[in-house]
Amino acid sequence: MKSFSPKELVGLISNPLERVVETLERKLGLFSVIIISLASMLGTGLFVIPALAMVEMSGSGSNPVGGIWLAFLLAGIVILPAAISKSELATAMPSSGGAYVYIEKSFGPQIGTVLGVGLWATTMFKSAFALLGFKAYLWVLDEMFGIKINIEIAALILLVLIVIINILGVKQIKKVQTPIVLVSVIFLTIICIKALFTVPMNWDNAFSKDAFGSGIVSVAETSAFVFVAYAGVTKIAAIGGEIKQPEKNIPTGLLLSLLISCIIYVLFSIMMVAAVEPSQYIGENGAREDPVYVFVDSVAGKTYAQISAFLAITMLTGMALAGVMATSRFPFAMARDNLLPKSIENVHPKYDTPHLSIIFTGLAMGFCISFLPVKDIAKLASGFKIMIFIMINCCVIVLRTSSKSHSWYEPKWKSPFFPIIQILGIIVSIWLIYLMGSKALIGALATIIIGLIIYHSYGKKNVNPEITPWDTFKLMFTNPDEAEKRRLYAAFHAADSNSKGNLNLQEFTSAMNSLQLKAELNDKILRNYFHAADLNGDGVLDVNEFLISIQEIKQEEE
Fold first, then answer.
1. Full-prediction pTM beyond 0.90?
2. Domain 26-434 in CATH: superfamily?
């Protein structure tokens, strides 16, 4: 039999999250979860993307179409499996770092580093895009106050304020985000109601055959394009270490925020094209990036349109606030796993926030805002975001299948219809990546290369080797006998708390309970097995005697 070091084997049974010391206070309730999640989505999804999606669905900038509501609906359905999977994972690992933590614990530090870098990059670019996205509405402030605004400087000043608010703590973020989200949604709802009663509605713009471009292909391609509008729905899990009652609030908050955002996107996009001809959302340089201003101006007049522009600026700011908060948690979590320098793990002594990680993220965003075409990069990053969701669904399949060997995986909430939901999510996500074309693959390849460089230059020499659920999952199909041997050896070494090379009765009982061989193995029965396997009568079992006891139990079952 192949020998394994106790350090490698113990990872099968013991909880790998035990080494993660949570230093962040749990102070976010269900309402906060929903608000932060919505603030991560509704910025660009409402105020920037709609006109771009109209052009994307038509395939031509000169003749936009209005069936984008179906693309939003399809994208919401596609992301549902990932939201469900992430809800389960978050209740098993309610730790700051979100998707990075789940992937690293499932697939190991190398893949964890690659996807951790990818998660950090994609959310950082998306947040930077939000800061630049409001530039389309700043001209309204120019007009209102008669001042010339330097857009780049304004974005950088705002970024500094966002970093400061994040360092002060998530309670302050909640106080800023709550009124922004609620006021914006209420305002747009009022405008839509006003449109129903005062504006001739052309429902054919939303529901006729011509509204969907060339048909299902156009709808699917546009769904891939608007997918980023939902990216924030699972972002809340990145601050899972700060959520009260995570086993309840994370799945409820994720699924409710997905439902609410989908309803808002679908209804609002229908109203936009029914009340205003899609052609009006096209400017001299193509699709306008201020579609809400166009809609409100046509329905309610210039004064209300100016209010909508102000709300757009504040909503996009709120999106950046949530983005910086979630993005900074990825380096924080990676530092805890020794994949990045330990200093990044430090939290502020007064505010209990990972201030160094926040500052680092803010500096990277500042560089992007000043020197990089963030909008293009954010579009490239959306493909990698879909790949992350594929991995999230894979995590649930791997962890559920190998949970007997890795008994630390005990989610408080489990995905229904496992594994059908996860498999469907993987298949449809791969289809979306195919529709996105080479740009998605190029963005993913660049991130993979950077992640591998970081892992092999720093992380590899600082992490302890462990047998991951992915290793076990593969063995269960390629060599099931070997997988079972590893599981048994892991149980032995995990129970051998002092590394003596043998187990006393109490340790033997602990090992047997972790293996869950038979439900009726009570302490009295286990005591009998212990003494029967103690061949030399020394009161302890070495690994061979331990295996003999297990063999006896299995023979009785047969």
1. no
2. Amino acid/polyamine transporter I (1.20.1740.10)
